[in-house]
Amino acid sequence: MVRVRLPGLAAFGARPSGARAARVRASAQFRDGAFCNPVQTRTVVPAAARNAVRELLFGGRVRKPSGVVPVLGGQASGAGAGDLHITWYGHASALVQIDGVRVLLDPVWSKRCSPSQLVGPRRLHPPPVALRELPALDAIVISHDHYDHLDMATVKALNRGQAAPFVVPLGVGAHLERWGVPAARIVELDWGQSASVAGLRLTATAARHFSGRTLARNYTLWGSWVIAGATRRVFYTGDSGYFDGYADIGAEHGPFDATLIQVGAYDPSWPEIHMTPEEAVAAHLDLRGGLLIPVHWATFVLAFHPWGEPADRLWREAKARGVTLAVPRPGERIDVDDPPAVDGWWQALV
Asked: To 5 degrees, how large is the angle CA 191–CA 142–CA 291?
């Protein structure tokens, strides 16, 4: 039999099989044929979804910036032992330079976060740097397999141009292998498991979300990440609804010098899988975080709220609760020990 592979289907990835599928089935998070959240979770609330459709058709909210989003050069100069710098590239993509080690989070460099570059959410600003201009990486960490966090073209480019391992939740390695990443460069972890990479300890921790690149859902795991160096610690939420597990993570792995927390793409239609800005501040406090850096906003339109609303609400809540906040422009490198004051740069674009 001749097997025909249609163009474009590779972006859907692959389902876990063989030994990888056996590890998936052995996970405590895998029940009745799918991965499950730590608490009961709805991916959509039907009554609110009907209101969302009305908002989409008849609402007047401005979901895109009114001008050009300011993009900086994505400085990535060296950082030594004890130093901690974070560069946000847009959406959930960020470079963490911790104790002299470089970790790239959820890199998405394509024009659209979609299985096709012809349709789907389009970037509102260019990547601050080209992938080839990134410094040598020590680890590439993925939170889950949705298109705005795991991009086939970006993975392929990093596979060619970098030597770092991909550290991912259970099952996600099947996608990477289909796209040409050698098995030796894939580290798959369940919640609570850790890997040592270049002197760092990377630990997969819980999140409240879901997974899937087709209509089939939850055959790969999603998660948050603890990035622990010799002297510094960073936490990244990935995508998640608020849940009491953040306090447990903070007690076990904190305090954190910095947290990167999802603040955008929230809606009453899916209140349990994405946090509001106010919930992001609550999560930061639960985690025992120092500096809060917001991610998952400004780059793609993925919800019905106004473009700049996540940053406005986050800034207001952070001030009310005494949380130290930095809101970088895409490509801006933040020194966690000396963060710039929030200047409301996005407000000129709404």
From this structure: 85
Q: In what order do the strands lie in the sheet with 289-295?
A: 194-197, 200-205, 224-228, 233-236, 256-262, 289-295, 324-325
Give the list of residues 6+ apart from residue 50 with CB closer than 8 angstroms, or none: none
- Which of 40-49 are b and which e, b meaning 16 or more Cβ less than 10 Å from the residue's Cβ? ebeeebeeee
- Averaged pLDDT score across all residues of the chain: 94
Closest CA to 223 of 145, 164, 323: 145
| Nearest alpha carbon to residue 176 among 198, 148, 145 | 145
| pTM of the full structure | 0.95
336's CB contacts (< 8 A; 6+ apart) are 84, 85, 86, 232, 257, 258, 290, 291
Place of tokens 């899988």: 273
pLDDT digits (tens, 9 = 90+) for 128-177: 999 999 999 999 999 999 999 999 999 999 999 999 999 999 999 999 99
115 with 107: CB under 8 angstroms? no
Q: What is the CA 17 to chain-centroid distance, rounded?
A: 25
Q: How far apart are CA 243 and CA 260, in angstroms?
A: 16
With tokens 């859902």, the residue in question is 217
- Look-up: residue for tokens 């906040």? 325
Contact status, residue 113 vs residue 90, Cβ threshold 8 Å? no
Query: Whose structure tokens read 């800034």?
Result: 315
Buried b (16+ CB within 10 A) or exposed e, 152-169: bebbebbbeebebbbbbb
Give the Å distances, CA to CA, from 296 to 27, 93, 350: 28, 8, 18
Count the helices and strands in the chain (H runs, E runs): 7, 16
- Angle of helix 277-286 relative to helix 245-253, nearest 10 degrees, comes to 40
Q: What is the DSSP letter of 91?
A: T
